[in-house]
Amino acid sequence: MSSFETNVAKFAEILAKFNQIHSLTNYKNINEQVIDSLAPLEFLDFSRFKTAIDVGSGAGFPAIFLALKTPEISWYLFEPNTKKSAFLNFIKVELGLENIKIHSQKIELCPKFKADLITSRALMKIPDFVKICSGFYDKSTKFLLYKGSSVKDELGDFRAEIFNKKNRNYILMDGLC
């Protein structure tokens, strides 16, 4: 078993334990979520990123798995829900993820810094998401959004590449400075 597979198994075990008490997610088998989290590695060159932000990190999809695969990137996870951010901090320690920093608050309340990549999975409508990320991106920043089937209605005037895999649309947009 590779170290990545070992870490995924450890993550699944910890998630199952946390779910018994805190009900973080309803996933019993996380394999599909891991595959979903990592799918953008097939079409996006992550080697050009140094700093990444994940907004509304929840139970760690996609950020934890992307961070495991890209240890050279500094990942900043924003999760205001105390139970979920406690879980993320526990996962960070247990998996030895030194490239992750957890912010237990909304992104809008944090000091601004520029990210090369901003990700989120089904958090909110695209215009609202771009607005709350103001101050964290410039024209060279890439947005990678994990969306469902109604994404074209959300895009409005935003230009984006859409990569589809099964029921998932991966939205790739340039910074909108």
Give the helix/strand layout:
Elements: H1 3-22, H2 31-38, E1 51-55, H3 63-69, E2 74-78, H4 82-94, E3 100-103, E4 117-121, H5 126-132, E5 142-147, H6 151-155, E6 161-165, E7 168-174
Parallel strand pairs: 1-2, 1-4, 2-3, 4-5
Antiparallel strand pairs: 5-7, 6-7
Strand content: 15-25%
Count, helices: 6
The biggest sheet, with number of strands, parallel, antiparallel or mixed sense and barrel status, is:
7 strands, mixed
- How many individual domains? 1
CATH structural architecture: 3-Layer(aba) Sandwich
Binding site for S-adenosyl-L-methionine: 56, 61, 107-108, 121
Function: Specifically methylates the N7 position of a guanine in 16S rRNA.
InterPro entries: rRNA_ssu_MeTfrase_G, SAM-dependent_MTases_sf
Family: Belongs to the methyltransferase superfamily. RNA methyltransferase RsmG family.
What does this structure look like?
The protein is α/β, with parallel strands linked by helices. It has one domain: Vaccinia Virus protein VP39 (Rossmann fold, 3-Layer(aba) Sandwich), CATH 3.40.50.150. 34% of the residues lie in helices and 21% in strands. The chain is built from 6 helices and 7 strands, in the order ααβαβαββαβαββ. Strand 6 (161-165) and strand 7 form a beta hairpin. It is globular and about 45 Å long. The chain starts with a helix and ends with a strand.
